[in-house]
Amino acid sequence: MHILEFEKPIAELEGKIEELRHLSDAGDVNIADEVSKLQAKVDKLLRSTYAKLTPWQKTQVARHPERPHALAYISTLIEDFTPLAGDRAFAEDQAIIGGLGRFRGRSVMVIGHEKGHDTESRLKHNFGMAKPEGYRKARRLMEMADHFQVPILTLVDTAGAYPGVDAEARGQAEAIARSIETCLDVRVPLISVIIGEGGSGGAIALATGNTVLMLEHAIYSVISPEGCASILWRSAENAKDAAEQLRLTAQDLHKLNIIDSVVPEPMGGAHRNTDLMMQTLSMAVESALRDLGGVEGGVLRARRREKFLEMGRAGLS
Amino acid sequence: MNWLTNLNETRRSLKERLVGLVAPKEVPDNLWHKCPGCGHMIFHRDLEKALNVCQHCGHHMRLSVKKRLGMLFDDGQFQRIELPKVPDDPLKFKDQKRYSDRLKDTRSKTGEVDAIVVAHGRMGGMNVVAACFNFDFQGGSMGIAVGEGIVAAAELAVLQDAPLIVIPASGGARMQEGILSLMQMARTTVAVDKVKEKRLPYIVLLTDPTTGGVSASFAMLGDIAIAEPGAVIGFAGARVIESTIREKLPEGFQKAEYLLEHGMVDMVVPRRDLRATMIRILSLLKNRGAAGDLVALPIDTPDSADQD
Ligand SMILES: [Zn+2]
Ligand SMILES: [Zn+2]
Q: Residues in domain CoA carboxyltransferase C-terminal (chain A) (predicted)?
């Protein structure tokens, strides 16, 4: 497993356990005893470390290469997933994946940023950095969901929209603006989950849900800590300070009423117990969907618009 | 008040005489402007007359909010509206300097509360609401106050049954307001949609620069998108693209003309023609004439033709 800088003491203990296990022959009671003592120590350290992660540490966890990404959640939570491709104008962009499927029996439209998990898939998904065609596909799929009265689930996980010449030439700004507009316009339940990194405009393009959930160690910010530091501190070295100031953690955003609830992660982060993470998120999405069930489409739309129209004006604590 | 006016005039003429006596060759800098486009020195009065456009190369320099609004409305007359107060420095943000201090500095320097001015007045006799960015106020960046300005302008347009014109000049989000500045993208999108839902024209005049979160929300959602010549318009900053992606930027990249060529704006209009162009568009959309009425009638009152 990829070890983050602050996890090194934990990794050392885990290494020792591994060594002892190698030494022991099956019946050695002393070693088994030692192993279980060390394991308890690991758990305690993991718990205490993850209970008080700094914003900068959370940024590392949110970007952890083994953290489950959108396709992982889809393959576990969504049955009969049927990917749909293309913006019908220019191209297919795998940085945003989307399609129809079934969540606990009901049809849903799932749309999410996918970062990829190895070199090949990262290139295929362009590291989760979408181009205009990605946002235009998202818009097309949201409109389709609206047409067929199917709830929408968005999974947000991107460093940001792709900053490239071709993306600009094809209207990156317009594509994001229209995606936001469509999110705020549909008359079906829209649930957004920030599963990893919610990076700026490229993230909010898919994140204006009736209900916005955020995983415990995910981040959501107007700019990356590195980007902010290089502008305001004139050095990317100050990313840690920027992360503190930006208030990008799920806990802070909940206090600011930007998100509706924080979805707890397994001890040591989503990547340490993917199965448990899937179960927890499944329950959270189910309960959010149930809360919105039976609400008339026009009311769903009006409530969503009212909620975002008020952001910043009221509810600041 | 006469004595005061007189005193001031006396002082001024005295000062002018002194300047004339003491330093005849030291011309104050602000009398002459160097054109960033061609380097020509332009006398300030000539520049003002030409609406801050270089008469040598056509370069469009920034325009103050006051001049911008004055140039658009009939007889230069418009009425500013007071914007609701919003929380200052909601996150208590601090980099090398406190954001609250930065705000204080900019406020005293500009005499403005934040980076947006909302006004209403007449254009070609039609009542119009306009929201204009002030780039001198922290790069025209969008925080809660700017979002509030767009919301207020949109609500005023709906209330007055008037078209809305928004004139961005902004580097993007106000970073020091963190996530709250990001949320203004959604907020302003809902706001301008309210105008569109009422079928009132929403015109965006993209001026230099319109980038980041401002371009990726209300600024790209106009019914009509007009850009000023040479204005930089785009999502990602050119430097970010160059450094992270290591791509060579094409000639004229992210300039108004480039956007026109790529189908992202309706037209690029020189400053001197802006007012007339906007009035023409507004009139075409507002005063649709007999044909517009004929289309609407049968849908609303299917029986009316028989009765008459
Ligand atoms: Zn791609
Ligand atoms: Zn010039």
A: 41-291
- Domain boundaries, position A225: 59-316
Q: What's the mean pLDDT in B206-230?
A: 98
pLDDT in the model for residue A315: 46
State the pLDDT at residue A314.
Answer: 58
Residues of B in contact with A161 (CB under 8 A): 216, 235-236
C-beta atoms of A173 and B234 within 8 A? yes
pLDDT at B196 > cutoff 90: yes
- For A253, residues 6+ apart whose C-beta sits below 8 A from its C-beta are A214, A220, A247, A259, B179
B152 reaches A (C-beta below 8 A) = no
Note residues around ion ligand 1 (Cβ under 5 angstroms).
A 93, 95, 126
Task: Give chain A's mean pLDDT.
Answer: 95
Q: Rounded CA gap, A175 and A135, in Å?
A: 6
CB A97 within 8 A of CB A114: yes
Using CA atoms, how far apart are residues A59 and B292, in angstroms rounded to an integer? 56
pTM listed for this prediction? 0.91
List of chain B residues whose C-beta atoms are within 8 Å of the C-beta of residue A311 = 180, 183-184, 186-187
Tally the domains of chain A: 2
Contacts of A280 (CB under 8 A, 6+ apart): A263, A264, A265, A266
Do A174 and A37 lie in a common domain?
no
Q: Which class for B24: exposed (0-12), middle (13-18), buried (19 or more C-beta within 10 A)?
A: exposed
Measured in Å, residue A155 CA sits from the centre of ligand 1 at: 17
Q: Between residues B133 and B6, which one has the greater pLDDT?
A: B133
pLDDT digits (tens, 9 = 90+) for B12-33: 444 444 444 444 444 556 789 9
pLDDT average, residue stretch A152-180: 97
Which one is predicted more confidently, B17 or B275?
B275
Q: How many CA atoms lie within 13 A of B279 on its CB side?
A: 15
> Are both A36 and A72 inside the same structural domain?
no
CATH number of this structure's domain B63-285: 3.90.226.10
Ligand nearest to the CA of B56: 2
